[in-house]
Design goal:
Layout (H helix, E strand, L loop, with lengths): L2 H8 L5 H21 L5 H27 L4 H25 L1 H5 L8 H67 L5 H32 L5 E4 H15 L4 E5 L5 E4 L3 H14 L7 E9 L2 E8 L6 H9 L12 H12 L3 E6 L5 E8 L4
Parallel strand pairs: 2-4
Antiparallel strand pairs: 1-3, 4-5, 5-7, 6-7
Helix pairs in contact: 1-3, 2-3, 2-4, 2-6, 3-6, 4-6, 6-7, 7-11, 8-9, 9-11
């Protein structure tokens, strides 16, 4: 049995009022049409078939829908209550209108067809109102959950910024003080600590950018791509003096993005060097523009990324917690570019290495 069917069976009692009352109205309406309106005109028959048979059948289908939807039990009960209430209210109002006739002794059975008609009408209105009410409650819960997640992200971002990064800076300061008091072996261990600390700092920065990206609406505006790339390549040359960087751009290329675009290429350039096993890593950055898209290719001569892992890294399934967030940088790149309505692809470099291709929409004139 499918999950939806299991949910429907489980929620049968919640929508029981809809099934029972709408089912009775359907049977009563079919009998009314056959007994009272079979010999009338075609339009009259069609009208009463629709009001006395089709409408309650639709309500029964709504009950089935409620059993398979993601609404909570309380929301399903709300819809059921509105349906029953709609039927009862119109019956009461109609009885009030018939009060003089009833006081004169006319039996209520004389108005049986009208009771069926007004019951169907009230039930249909009640179901619509109940569904709107239930969906409004669901949307309110989603909004509250989103606000709570937003507050949590802001708290974690504050924690990373003020506690974790400050702690890493303190560790770095103490290792600097130890350099004059250690031998060769101690210096080797200090270098390992520094390397690990820098990696942790980079990871924290990536997590903070990722949280800010996911928790806020991205406002895009015309952003000069070539100048951002030129700046990031310059920073990478300083950070990685043992690597060689080539950068070529056709001049001014303006894309629809914002200042967080720099984090995309900062991560790509860092990955191209840090995961490179060459003595002198070679990294080349090319920019081209065609039609409505700007394309940036970041190519390296490292060991490359196996094809089976490429999609996982870009979708966030390739993280390796045991290696201190390995793969998070590419997921950050993919997430940021997607918020700019762009796309990222990973290709093989010839004869060796990886090419990360970033496509971004050009800014409107």
């Amino acid at each position: 049995m499918s999950q939806g069917a299991v949910r429907w069976v489980d929620r049968l009692p919640d929508a029981a009022g809809i099934y029972l009352l709408a089912g009775l109205l359907t049977v009563a309406g079919a009998g009314t049409v056959i007994q009272q309106y079979a010999d009338t005109g075609t339009l009259t028959v069609l009208f009463y078939v629709f009001m006395d048979v089709v409408v309650p059948l639709v309500v029964v289908c709504v009950g089935v829908y409620l059993g398979r939807t993601d609404l909570r039990r309380r929301d399903v009960l709300v819809v059921t209550a509105w349906f029953v209430g709609g039927v009862v209210v119109l019956w009461v109002l109609y009885s009030w209108a018939l009060l003089p006739d009833l006081l004169e002794g006319t039996p209520p059975s004389e108005f049986y067809p009208e009771y069926v008609l007004f019951g169907n009408l009230g039930g249909a209105v009640g179901v619509v109102a109940g569904l709107n009410r239930a969906r409004a409650r669901q949307n309110q819960r989603l909004a509250e959950r989103t606000a709570l997640q937003q507050d949590t992200l802001e708290f974690v971002n504050h924690l990373l910024r003020h506690n974790v990064l400050n702690g890493l800076q303190v560790i770095g300061g103490y290792t600097d003080m130890l350099e004059d008091h250690t031998d060769t072996e101690g210096q080797r261990l200090i270098d390992r600590i520094d390397e690990r600390g820098e990696h942790m700092t980079e990871l924290v920065d990536n997590v903070r950018v990722l949280m800010r990206t996911l928790s806020t609406d991205v406002e895009r505006h015309p952003t000069e791509l070539s100048s951002i790339l030129d700046s990031e390549v310059g920073v990478a040359r300083t950070a990685y003096p043992d690597a060689e960087f080539e950068f070529e751009a056709p001049g001014e290329v303006t894309v629809s993005a914002n200042r967080m675009l720099g984090a995309v290429f900062e991560n790509l350039l860092a990955n191209a060097v840090e995961h490179n096993d060459a003595d002198t890593p070679q990294v080349r950055v090319d920019v081209s523009a065609d039609g409505e898209t700007a394309t940036v290719r970041v190519a390296d001569d490292g060991p490359g990324i196996p094809e089976r892992y490429r999609g996982a890294y870009l979708e966030g399934n390739g993280w390796n917690p045991e290696k201190t967030g390995e793969g998070l940088g590419l997921y950050l790149v993919s997430t940021l570019v997607a918020r700019f309505d762009g796309e990222v692809a990973i290709e093989e470099n010839d004869p060796r290495g990886t090419v990360v291709v970033v496509r971004l929409p050009l800014a409107d004139d």
